[in-house]
């Protein structure tokens, strides 16, 4: 007897979820990670959810190149938001970048255009495959990002972004005890670019690596480990005003500080508590909005790792290349300005505040600090000296630190960050 309903195409659910993810990022401006839960609802197997994420992330990494192929193979340019375009992006990225056999790549997406231009999708995909289509070794950047970053940082920086986007970033670990750097570099078969840092080439499951269960380290990009280093060690109270998921708060605690780890997100603070328990370091966790909360008295050390557009972590989160524009940058810069103005007021005379963002936008870094300095005669930059930084990264002449794509490229690069250490006179 003929089945009443056709059997579901194996792998279709993951492709449908990938389509929803692309839609969430490109049309609704949602972060990929935020959209993941809703897009993969009803998918039981973790490997199918991971596949959906991998397809969408790779499609975002390769979007301008995929679109150039599609546009070169269609007589009439498909609208930017046409479902057929997104379905073709998903099929092509699997066949050309993820190693999916072309027949599987197309047969698992065609049901997604049921009742739509199935023949067109099939025809465009087939003609591209027959024509030997390939993707360039280094992905092209979307024009609006290329122009923005080229205006701020120059063409050499932009040229360094594409290779950085092509390869998955290495896994960086921060050690609880920097004195054990040689031991863990050896046990993890990694390389170390700074005391307390190990870079691991093999990107396998983190929980399986030596030292995870023992709480010897946590995952943290090398650039992200620099701001807490700039506060040095101490045994006083240190405020970490935007603490979750906790990498920098743990660094401060490991350096002896009594850390008040504040964040407004109770859910994200659960991760902080889990991480602190695994590592075995004490943190005083406070759920509060830094724009409303205030400490009891002046403090000597503050870390403000402010919420930002996160364009500096494009290697891990390529959705920032499509979600972030001038409006988002201006909104974040305004929020950061308010947080910074409030936080410097809490500093004791001689106290230090490290301000950091994982953004490649000067509005969220250099410009914000210059505006603060112009408004506050009692605040100055406490310049970072070269010996506080890993070899290959130098402080800016103004005393702050800017990491850019292209730095340490031969060793695997690092995230884009801005950090400045301020002192209250
Ligand atoms: C860049 S992340 C912090 C990363 C963290 N410092 C680390 O090293 O793991 C920014 C954090 O700021 C928090 N946040 C955003 N607005 C806030 C506010 N008004 N008050 C407190 N935390 C806030 C977010 O919940 C987010 O966890």
TrEMBL record:
Signal peptide residues on this chain, from the entry's feature table: none
SAM-dependent MTase RsmB/NOP-type domain span: 147-425
Record keywords, A-Z: Methyltransferase, RNA-binding, S-adenosyl-L-methionine, Transferase
CDD domains with a match to the protein in the record: AdoMet_MTases (cd02440)
List of residues binding S-adenosyl-L-methionine: 242-248, 263, 289, 305
UniProt entry tagged with the keyword Methyltransferase: yes
Catalytic machinery residues: 358
Matching InterPro entries: MeTrfase_RsmB-F_NOP2_cat, MeTrfase_RsmB-F_NOP2_dom, NusB-like_sf, NusB_RsmB_TIM44, RCMT, SAM-dependent_MTases_sf
A GO BP annotation: methylation
GO molecular function: methyltransferase activity
Top-level division of the source organism's lineage: Bacteria
Family: Belongs to the class I-like SAM-binding methyltransferase superfamily. RsmB/NOP family.
Protein name: RsmB/NOP family class I SAM-dependent RNA methyltransferase
